[in-house]
Amino acid sequence: MEVVLCTLSSLSRRAMIREQTANLKFLAKLGKTPSKSFAMLQQVYGEETMSRTCAFEWHKRFKEGQEEVEDDAWSGRPSTSRTADNIKRVKQMVRADRRLTVRMIAEELSIKKDTVWSITENLEMRKVYAKKVPKLLSKDQKQRRVTDCQDIIERFEDDPDLLGSQYWR
């Protein structure tokens, strides 16, 4: 039997940066120095901490009176890859073949891998061995699991030595 372990971040990268920014705002209002604030962020977030430069810039903004924790709107051309049509197509592709990689989807749809990754995050899909799968089970999948578990329980009740004593030593 093969066991697959995967760690899931409870927050997306953007959400984590937003949370760190809110924490920086709090620390700046408490009068903490930028260096002390950054050290506290590192203590909590470890390797996921925003860069020192960003932390100092945000600290400065909050000291100057900025209240918003969202970054300013970027100038330039808006994204044209992240359309409702592309989101729908990514979802259909993953549902049709869950073994597709981000690279394969990106090549098929002629969009960037980062865009595909972002779309799948928003569709609440996660990476398992470089493949995307739905995070939530469908009703049929849930029922199948219940049925399979009930079958295993019935087999074990009929034959308590089903697994053999060699596994319990």
TrEMBL record:
Domain of life per record: Eukaryota
InterPro entries: Mos1_HTH (IPR041426), Transposase-MT_Hybrid (IPR052709)
Protein name as annotated: Mos1 transposase HTH domain-containing protein
Domain called Mos1 transposase HTH: residue spans: 26-65
Pfam families cross-referenced by the UniProt entry: HTH_48
Residues forming coiled coils: none
UniProt source species: Eptatretus burgeri (Inshore hagfish)
Phylogenetic lineage: Eukaryota, Metazoa, Chordata, Craniata, Vertebrata
